[in-house]
Amino acid sequence: MSIKNLTLSQAREKMGVKQDELGKVFTEAKADDGQYDFNKVTCLGDQVKGSIAVAEKVKAMNGELDELGVHIETLTAAEKAAGAHADREKGIRNFPLPGSGGQGGGAAQHQFKSIGELVALSAEYKSWAGKGAPQGLEFSFADLYPSDFLASAGAVQTLGQKALFATTSGYAPEVLRMPGFVEKATRPLQLIDIIPMSRTGESAIKYMEETTRDHLAAEIAEGGTYPEDAYLFTEKSSPVQKIGTSIPVTDEQLEDVAFMESYLNGRLTFGVRQRADRQSYIGDGLGSNLLGIRNTPGIQTQAKGADPTMDAFYKAMTKIRKIGRAIPTHHVMDPEDWQDIRLTRTADGVYIFGAPTEAGPERLWGLPVVQNDADGAGTGLVGAFDPAWISLSERRGVEVQVGYVGTQFTEGKRTIRADMRAALTKFRPSAFCEVTGI
Description:
The chain has helices at residues 8-29, 51-93, 115-121, 123-130, 141-144, 147-153, 251-256, 260-282, 309-322, 335-342, 408-411; strands at residues 197-199, 204-214, 230-239, 241-250, 300-303, 330-333, 363-364, 367-371, 380-383, 390-403, 413-426, 432-436.
């Protein structure tokens, strides 16, 4: 029989026989070294002898197997298509609709009535409505739908007792989280941006300050005695201090959240610089603290008194020029103190720093205003922020390191730390003037 006329079962049976025959040939021909010697083959009979004859027979048998494989694949696909067709036909023809008596039929053969229509046509509703609807009405699905439909649908029998299908008791909706996060508010860097920076390789900044400078030059009569000047130097030192912070973190947090390493590095670095910013302004110099500008011995003071706040800042500028012999460059004050200045109005109610529709200059007496809330309102500062008079010298900039503390290695944890070493040097304290009583 031709292969094309074989049924699927016949083709599979024949393919199995042919596979066995070809397998015997290869078994006999296989040598100890893994090669094939077709001269050894005897299972094909006396008429097929020699390597050429056996090889040609093997080629023919293999071709027949390929043809059987294609035939079986085609018939298998056809049977699957027939099964799928039957499943679709069953879904269309055999769904029992309400009122169909449980018999399958075409969708167009029956009219599907809504629950409201079925209720209105039911005997219970008509009886209840005819009595004036005294107490209420309860229907069961059995009153509205055939029993075979209820069985196939798995329906709950009583409408009044059916469990509510809601998001809290049913399938909760999936909600995707937006990327990124909302940053928590924190005090920005406000002062160190205007402090000149420098580098040092020492553990302290040592320098010589000319603490006495008396110029006594005068006119001299003929044969008179020359006056004598007086100069005195004093060694000063500003120690390098360390500012640091750290945070423990699990291995999983670093591995599973892609941005966590860079996030922690950035946050720790900012925290160190934020502390340096605060210390540079109000550090008390005790222990490992930096000595901030406001607590430095020798800076000048200007009390506001009965003067307008703006006048007090101008008088501080004058002291820096006249006593500190420096040129003031910046005003530093709390945002609330600047608010009071910015909102200053004339007697006619005109804003002197510009109309409310304008941003207005953050300048006072020609100098930029740095809003710094590290110490709260009530006290400000005027300073000559030039490298000759002040410097924040870094022994080492902010460095981030990772290590293990205690038993963290066996607990799958590690600690990330960040620190810096710096010294704040005020070469001429009188180049700064504190404004009090604002």
